[in-house]
Amino acid sequence: MNTLLFQVEDRPPLLTTILLAAQHMLAALGGIIAVPLVVGAALKLPGDQIVALINAALLGSGVVTFIQCKGVGPVGIRLPCVMGTSFAFVGAAISVGLEHGVPGILGSSLAGSVVMIVGSCFMPQIRKLFPHAVTGVVVTMIGLSLVPVAVDWAAGGFAPGANYGAPANLGIAAFVLLTVIALVQFGKGIVSAAAVVLGMFVGYLLCLSLGMINFSAVEQAQVFALPQPLHYGMTFPLAGIVAMAVAFLVTMVETTGTFMALGAATNTKMRGKTLARGILCDGLGSALAAVMSSPPVSTFAQNVGVVSLTGVASRHVVALTGCLLFLAGLFPVLGAIVVTIPKPVLGGAGLMMFAMIISAGVQLLSKVESTKRNSIIMAVAIGCGLAVTVRPELLAKLPSFVKEVFGSGITVGALVAVVLNLVLPERPVEHDEDDEDVPQAFLTQELEAA
Fold first, then answer.
1. 329-380 confidence digits (pLDDT tens)
2. 43-79 pLDDT per residue, tens
3. What does residue 254 show for φ and ψ, rounded to 5 degrees?
4. Contacts of 334 (CB under 8 A, 6+ apart)
5. CA distance 356 to 39
6. Can you tell me where the transmembrane regions are (predicted)?
7. What are the boundaries of each domain within the chain?
């Protein structure tokens, strides 16, 4: 069991809550903004339309995060869960957008979200496909899939160039990483709990002193902007709906795994009904996001790392994160300030957060019964998931549909683990009452020797 500083239902003091909520916001903001930036650039949208997409994404993420944490009737998992625009939809969004523009993306998202809404009705059955061996694989793959993102941040960006891996970038990332480690290990109370945001703040000050901060985005940003529902309008192309439906299926698998990781991080038993509430919020939230002119949203895995690292599992803290994201959408200048954080600063903190998810996955795997069957499931699933994570070009010559489904290491690892768990037969372990005190590992060895 994880030792938590704040349990799921705890309400920290107001100032502490604000600081911890800001920490979650900083961990998620880069990912939320990145999707509309990538899609907008691919579709060659004017600057003002890209800004409108970003504002809509922040607003949508904020509203759905609040609902996911607080819950409204049967909607919302009621755990510290940050929602944001997902890269799982980027491929489908760009392909649809090139043919039908942003209205086609939003209409296809609205229609495709039905897949997740309907899928939430079957979560008790889907939950049975995730025993401990499968859950451990998924949690581990979430962390392993996110580490390359942190490494790219630490190196200075996602596109290797002259500045990629520069000693200055790596030095700043290492400085932030060591600062976070020191605060977690030696800090007490709020200092340890807010280690990520404090480490990033120290790293930001260092970059500011070195003249590495560019404030041009802040100078150009609007101070206030009203929400613009249906700003682009909507169209419903059949091909686009199918593409988005597939993306939602993939996301449902990833989100289920993320919820399992969140359950492990918060010491919460993830029952089928609990998962159903979370998946339903994902689906309805994406539909709401489309109406608000935002790309689809899904649960952010990186924020599970924040919970694992800091021990802050309060859903009320993350509900305030939703409010902060909403405010960032209303006041674009706030989001612009956060965007000025240099990538190496994010990389140093991100490496620590994502590695903590791997640690949680390894702990889950260590509790799985040591049998040849379970070893095969875990080894093959993690191996296949890593294959597409470290070598995405592996799928380059396959049909676009295949790349869409199997482009994520989390999805591949989860699907392989689920299939092997269903296909490989279980060996019944038979022993009499006298064997009850014999260690399980010894029994396993004896059975295999026989």
1. 998 887 778 778 898 998 999 898 888 888 888 988 998 999 999 999 999 9
2. 888 877 877 888 899 999 999 999 999 999 999 999 9
3. -60, -45
4. 327, 328
5. 30
6. 50-67, 79-98, 104-122, 129-151, 163-184, 196-218, 238-265, 317-339, 345-364, 376-394, 406-424
7. 14-423
Write out the two tokens for 234: 């909507």
φ/ψ (deg, to 5) at 298? -155, 170
CA-CA distance, 319 to 309, in Å (whole number)?
Answer: 19
Rounded Cα distance between 439 and 212, Å, is 58
pTM: 0.79
Side chain identity, residue 63: V
CA angle at 246 for the pair 147 and 376, rounded to the nearest 5°: 55
